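Quarterly update from the structural biology core.
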Amino acid sequence: MTDSFVTAIDSHAHVFTRDLPLTPGRRYAPAYDATLEHYLAMLRSIGMSHGVLIQPSFLGFDNSYLLACLDAYPQQLRGVVMADPVNALSYIDDWHARGVVGIRANLIGAQLPDFTDQHWTALLSRMVALDWHLEMQIDAGRLFQVTPALLASGVRIVIDHFGRFDPALGTSDPGFGYLLLLGQTRRVWVKVSAGYRVSAKPGDPEATFATSATAWSKLLPAFGADRLLWGSDWPHTQFEHVSDPQRALDDLRRLVTDASHRRAVLIDTPTELFHFR
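Predicted structure, tokenized:
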């Protein structure tokens, strides 16, 4: 990989080792290592030059491994950390200098934060000043409960994995309909990634692709290609047996047939959003 020339950006991946301290109350713990070296080799194998590392929820607020990875490859990698809003302002400038570009809120199975709380409002204000984003993994049906406060703050909002609509409802999920309306704000980006997380048949590649294709056909006119991103979701935690990075990228190429749209999703949009300049 080169340090500066962007061939394609993977906007969503995780790195970790089994011996890292795990956060209490986690929903999942890995039984294998997904190291930085493994990740970089994976990127090379599918012809991608840059990546965005997302703090795994099972590591909680201990971002030390992710930060060490950013320190090792400051040109090729960016990071999204998890943070306690009570003390995050003490760390945010150091994080920014080391290549962090956003904060993650993984809200699947979790109580929703009060983004109007004074700690959050102060943190969000600083994030706006740094041109960071707040990345959310959240059930589509609960999205309406948190986005008004976030939009009012002015922060950029990134929604994971096609909006995490209910697999049983598919794109008929009212929460997905609400997500589509957010495209009008131009303050929201969506990752067209990990279709198996919204598929009623995650073990069936063609059924999963069909679900992703339906979602893409609705997201594109609602948001525009300049608000859509692709991520490998490597190493596909909890779905390791149903996908791999090459299949994910091949599916994207089948999904996004317009070359200009594909360039936006893989290069132009993530270059700007994640500060690859």
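The longest helix spans residues 205-223.
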